[in-house]
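Supplementary Methods, section 5.1.

A reviewer requested that the exact input to the structure prediction be made available. We therefore reproduce it here, unchanged from the version used in the analyses.
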Amino acid sequence: MHFLVSKYIHLLLFSSLLLLSQDPISAEDPTFVVCPPETSNYTLGSQFETNLNRLLPLLSPDGPINLNGYYNETYGEYPNIIYGYSQCMSGATEEDCKECLKNSTKEIIRRCSNRMEAVIRYYRCILRYSNRPFFSVEDTTIRIELILLQDTSTSTMFNLKLGGLMMRLASEADSKPSKFATGNIPMNDFETINGLAQCTRDLSAGDCRACLEGMISRIPECCGNKKGGNVYCVSCNIRYDPYLFFDNSPPLPLPPQTSPPLPIAVPPPPSQPAGKTDGNKSRVIIIIVVTSVLGLALSSSCICYYLWRRKIPYKEKGERQELEHYLGIPDGSAMDDDQVSELPIINLATIQAATDNFSDENKLGEGGFGPVYKGKLSDGKEIAVKRLSRSSRQGLEEFKNEVTLIAKLQHRNLVRLLYCCMDRGEKLLIYEYMPNTSLDVFLFDSIKSAQLGWETRRNIVSGIAKGIVYLHEDSRLRIIHRDLKASNVLLDHEMNPKISDFGMARFLGGNQSQVNTNRPVGTYGYMAPEYGMGGLVSVKSDVYSFGVLLLEIISGKRNNSQHLPNGAQSLLICAWGLWCDGRAMELIDPLLAESCPTNEVFKWIHIGLLCVQQDAADRPTMSSVILMLGSESMKLPQPTQPGFFFPRAVVESDKSSANAKIYSKNGVTISTLEPR
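The structure derived from this sequence is encoded token-by-token as follows.
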């Protein structure tokens, strides 16, 4: 779910009262209700509304509550399938849980009328539904921050103790089945800091901690030097307060660990007189046959029930086998349930109808993967469809990479993979459609670039940085994009950036900090020198690419533009020369000269040069870059000479940038492998 709730909403008007109470948020007063604006409305009386009305009672049962403490249900078939989740928070009584869930099912319909996606959160429970799968996926994009306005008198010591307490609680919650932890630490002889950390119970170990640490990192910005704070998102929440706001009652129970049933002692049959042996044998055979048939029927029923509950979206065995083959799963090795659940499948007929059978009028462009088409589903949602060219080996690798990687990612600054399709020889990837195309279409166009004012560019830079931090540090997999460039940054209807094209991405396993690749892929001009020349890829490779992109956004010129000052061969050479001469401000796009704050743009140039330094160890991490971008007082180190990687003596025009013109209508771009 890619949307954000601003912290300045009306909740702040009464946040202090909420945090001073023992039960801060009553059953009638939600913590937050979000009806994402980018989702579609469903039509009254439609099948979607019928399915939703049947799903919600499953999330708020009348009988005993689920011992797991949460429900995840799926109802209906594509395109009207609905995914639902509900959970009562730890510490809630069974009566409170039932009442909260019952209120939630009513209020979510009333407050988010006709929306195909919504979430409502109370102090005691949370309920969510969507027309796309979201189970077990960390979601921090919806955030509410409440503060206790009273300042602490000893901020340094308070922050140290608070940080230690909250990190300990995050670790404890992550390791518990309840995903819930409370605790406190003495501040002095008179005061105590009480803390709470909690995740939704569907999160895995690791994801829970990452979510909580993300909320803890918000404390300095939202609640700095305050005695109390409360940060909520969909997947987790934290709270600290000088007042004891929780009791020590145990959380909702979890299923007991059951032992296998003991064998039933069967008495030996009585001795039979001679002559009745054949009759006894017949009875034994009948019993064995009947028992076997009943056992087989019971097993079959269990298997059918399990498959029905899992809602596996593969209609035909052949399609699943083909998908396993192209994902590199050895013959005879079935895909596990996690792989299945993260691969939303859509049938070919639906995509043919959405794109008018891949008509030329709907064609957006073409790249190494194959052609890209615009389409519209029956519910009105616009999509971009990548269609793998049957002769493209490169596209096949991209297909495999995106299906196995991007389906596991959810962040507001990453483009969303909605579905994939493998049917009758077709291999398709279906994404959300980006109406404002890609950043390069605006940035390097003399007319359209006027729409990129300073505030818009600031928002784009911030969003790109946050998306990369998510890939490097906060996602379930540590991912290196390897092809970050202007044409792979898409813009939604509000000009918010979304990083796309994960066909070249690599993930780092275990404690890996870097990997050696057989040969570099991506785009010359954005490649870090250690990667372009030696095949060594790390998170610092993406930092280098970000630095190049940042300097392009500042200057409005491509890295290899032929119209750079003093005849420089690249933007990096130009920027470094101007920096050394004390004329760095000459780099700025003339369109911004009168509107941009001088100090801020100078800092951006400084950060860009830090990101493109020759030695990867000298480059900052992307989380440090975010701190630099947001700080007005941080002292930045002096940059050293940039690393230059150009495979030719004279820089040629960037092929992928030229190709970007093809995507003037495109909502999804495709990396073009540059000469190797």
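The first helix runs from residue 15 to 20. These observations are discussed further in the main text.
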